[in-house]
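Q: What would this chain look like folded?
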Amino acid sequence: MQNELLHELQARGFINQTSNLDGLNDALNAGKIAAYLGSDPTADSLHVGHLVPVMMMRWFQRYGHRPIMLVGGATGRIGDPSGRDTGRPMMTEEVLAKNIAGLKKSYSKFFKFGDGPSDAVMVDNYDWMKTYSHLDFLRDFGTDFTVPRMLSMESVKRRLDNGMTFLEFNYMTFQAVDFLTLYQKYGCVLQACGADQWGNAIMGIELIRKKLGKEAFVLSTSLITDSNGTKIGKSAGNAVWVNEDKTSPYEYYQYFRNMPDELVEKSLKIFTEIPLDEIARLAALQGAELNAAKKVLAFAATEIAHGADAARDAAAAADALFGAGAPAADNAPTTTIKMTDDMGILDFLCACGMFDSRSEARRMVEQGGIQIDGERVTDPRAVVHPAASILVQRGKKIFLRVVCD
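A: My prediction, written as structure tokens:
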């Protein structure tokens, strides 16, 4: 009999690939399990691109299983080569600490942590990896990984011609040891991951089999892409962040409110916990009525990440901006910045909080997605003149009034 949780996950479109579906089904039918999901601290917040496996793990907790949320303090010091053509830049200890704290804050929005049987656990793989010397690690695990097997991984093959380092080559061994460690400490039998982590995760179940003679499982989810088919992520410059100091609840709400029509049903299934029969009703709406489904999606997704009060405030702000007869410019949220002289457009956009980096701002300007007081700006070398009030528009529906102090 198919496990009820697996049925829910399949019906909602979470499951991309499993190492042993029948075995996982039996394990879930036999009792409650522990499962883990990891993320390296490459930024100080999760973003929407991370949320498919995160939401899947929420369902594990709802069904009484224990989620283990791993922050990669050790693997973050190496850099995951999966899906990349170049190595990741090294981070300072200060940046790592800041990012780890930010990821923990993000995870706390989606899970109940505590000491109960289904309460989530937060771990950092640096806590055990720092105990190994290089010689210890090679002695304990060096014979468990063969070079031909490692070279067969897609994350390695795509990098061989453009300089994969020995540092990155070790990444999959660290992730495998993480799985083994969590199996031994928490009885963790499942690793959840995005599709791009499949090869790294499989190495973990192979290591558990070699070391312990036990069966473990991997369950991967599909990656989320934007309307252009580009993977949503920090490096792509299209990230929508979970932590409110990087993306406001209003902007988070607007991201889901502006979801393309063809992605509404999929997004309702993945990013909300609305029952499937209600999702089917919402997805059947046509034309202008589909906007009602988008509002439900935006509210439900924002409520999970930011709470009911923030979701209500975001919905009210959106209605004030874009409701019938509401002039968006007059109702735009306001921020104040220090500005007494001309400022480059990229610095201005970062200063007022529209973007976290000049590279993200540059990309949006060059794509024609920025307007200043109704004038589209496409030259990243343009300057903004100080004024009592400056209206900034990003895309079609994000407005901000900037007051210069």
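The chain has 18 helices and 13 strands.
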